[in-house]
Each structure stands twice: as structure tokens, then as C-alpha cells.
Amino acid sequence: MLLSTTNNLEGKNIKEYKGVVFGETIIGANLFKDLFASIRDIVGGRSGTYERVLAEARETALNEMSQSAMALGANGVIGIDVDYEVVGQSGSMLMVSVSGTAVIIE
Asked: Which residue in 34, 41, 69, 79 could disulfide with 102, CB within 3.0 to 4.6 Å?
């Protein structure tokens, strides 16, 4: 499955557009409360643990989108957009959503 944020693929021909596909995941967020507290204590510091959790959430959403594209018979997704949103009553969860156009590439 070829994934791209661009709408055109250099050297490739898009044979057919299959439709818009999505992938979402939500991460529980006590982690993020801790992250923001840590930022207050250590300005400019990075947290490898939180970065790994975000990367895992993004990969999960991309995989879900890819599965949706394959279900439509596509072998690629173009114009991918990745969004992050804080959700939940107290803003205690993070949603990662991705969307793109499923295509058949020759």
C-alpha cells in the first residue's frame, strides 16, 4: 500500500479514484496530563515515552485507513491529512485521525 500526503505521485499513473478513507484512534490521557505538568517543570524537555505513544497512535490510525482502502480494492492512498485533537470531558484523551483518497495506481 503506497501512502502519500501529495495528490500526485511522480512517475505513477492513478488509474482510478475509489473514495475517501479514514482511520481514527483515541489514546487515554492521564499520560497527557502528566506530560503538560512535566513541561511546566522542565521547559523544553522531551519525553520519549509520550513520543512513542503518539507514534503508535498515528501508526494505528494509518493502518486502519490502509485497511479501509484495501477493502475498496485500492493499492494506494493520496492526499493524506493527519490531525490531532484533544477530546473527552476534561480533555483527558487524544484522538489521532487520518484521511485520504483511496486510489488504484498502475
From this structure: 69
Three-state DSSP state, 24:
strand
β-bridge pairing 76-87 and 2-3: parallel
Angstrom distance (rounded) from CA 102 to CA 88: 30
Burial of 89 (0-12, 13-18, 19+ CB in 10 A): exposed
pTM metric for this prediction: 0.80
Taking the C-alpha atoms of residue 36 and residue 59, their distance in angstroms, rounded to an integer, is: 23
Q: Residues near 10 by Cβ (< 8 Å), separated by ≥ 6?
A: none
